[in-house]
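Recall the central idea of this unit: under ordinary conditions, the amino acid sequence of a chain determines the structure it adopts. In this exercise we apply that idea directly, starting from the sequence alone.
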Amino acid sequence: MNFLDKFILSFGDEQQMDHESEDRPLSLAERLRKKLSNMVKIRKGLTVDSGAADHVMPVGWLIMFIVLKSIGSIKGVHYVAADGTRIANVGQQLIRFMTIDGTWTEIMFQLAAIHKPLISVSKLNETGYKVIFDEDKSYILHKKTKRVIHMRKERGVFVIDAYVAKNPSQGFKGQR
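Accordingly, the structure predicted from this sequence is:
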């Protein structure tokens, strides 16, 4: 099943009607446009990083998700950048997102003053995922469910294209 098929299935079985014409069902393109209008692409995507100790999101990027205190922010934990700079942990956010191929997942991200979101390979491994970096086909496999998250390579870095709800409290139907 391709991305578009999975995406359309996430609408559920209910028949969606055009508000202007109560008797006309929405076309596939109209339904897709409506679904995408309620989503935002995470800019720069999610960088899958074998050197990251934690999943980390830049402060202020996804303001639609609640920011919580984290053990790291309470205890004054700092991350160390490649140049040795110390970066404070300022909290955490549970981010629910959909990948470009229609897979839904959620990750608890720590918040820090960084420039792009990082997904930690070691944290993925600890939580039952297998990460495959390959020139032709790179992906993350959940060992138990066999769900696959595809990655693409951009300028030597592996990235997951991800989308979030503009209003996550409304929720989405589909794979979680």
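The longest helix spans residues 28-37.
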